[in-house]
Design brief:
Blueprint (H helix, E strand, L loop, with lengths): L2 H8 L1 H19 L6 E6 L5 H10 L8 E4 L10 H18 L3 E7 L4 E8 L5 E4 L6 H4 L4 E6 L2 H16 L3 H15 L1 H4 L2 E4 L2
Parallel strand pairs: 1-5, 1-6, 2-5, 6-7
Antiparallel strand pairs: 3-4
């Protein structure tokens, strides 16, 4: 066993994400479609991006899988709901209808829309981001994930990742996430719930 593997096997977060990835990959193979949609929701720092990257690396179906992070769609620090609605209108609905979707990346530094990206409806799709599982988006996902993680752990991971850029906005963003949890019940909309330490 390599030292990298033995270190990760001692890390409870890595173990939880490895377990989640294995279960999701198994679920993907059971979906009777060549272009399944996986939606990953959870509060900031829960492990959504890490799990999404693991799924892309291990994707079990032939061909490429598309990955879109809502961090690229939220229009600023007050934009959780708006980013989710953009994903629904411009990515998920067209994909479900077999149409090419087109979305614009949000440039956080310039605080304005940037370049456009196309979504191929014939290819599988993973979308990840806080606020994603709502009654209107859930019906557009074949596999719907909610990652549950303690606030202390999440905050540490998020601020370690994004540092001073995120720190002044943590509470502001957390209030939007809390509203989403209370109004949309994302855990109840999920097909799989994973707990990340």
């Amino acid at each position: 066993m390599s030292s990298a593997l033995s270190r990760s096997s001692l890390d409870p977060v890595a173990v939880a994400l490895e377990t989640a990835a294995a279960r999701v990959i198994s679920a993907v193979t059971q979906v009777a479609a060549s272009n399944p949609v996986v939606l990953i929701d959870g509060r900031s720092g829960a492990g959504k991006s890490s799990l999404a990257r693991m799924l892309v690396a291990r994707w079990p179906l032939t061909g490429r899988v598309q990955l879109i992070a809502l961090d690229s769609l939220y229009p600023g620090w007050d934009g959780l709901e708006a980013g989710v609605e953009t994903a629904r209108e411009q990515i998920l609905v067209p994909h479900a209808r077999g149409l090419i979707g087109v979305w614009q990346r949000w440039d956080w530094q310039l605080d304005q829309p940037a370049e456009a990206h196309a979504v191929d409806p014939s290819l599988p799709l993973i979308v990840e981001g806080a606020g994603l599982l709502t009654p209107s988006t859930a019906r557009l996902g074949d596999i719907r994930l909610w990652l549950e993680s303690p606030v202390v752990s999440r905050r540490h991971r998020a601020l370690t990742r994004d540092g001073d850029t995120y720190r002044p906005h943590w509470e502001r963003w957390a209030r939007q996430e809390q509203r989403h949890v209370e109004e949309d019940d994302p855990m109840g909309l999920a097909t799989h719930v994973f707990r990340v330490p």
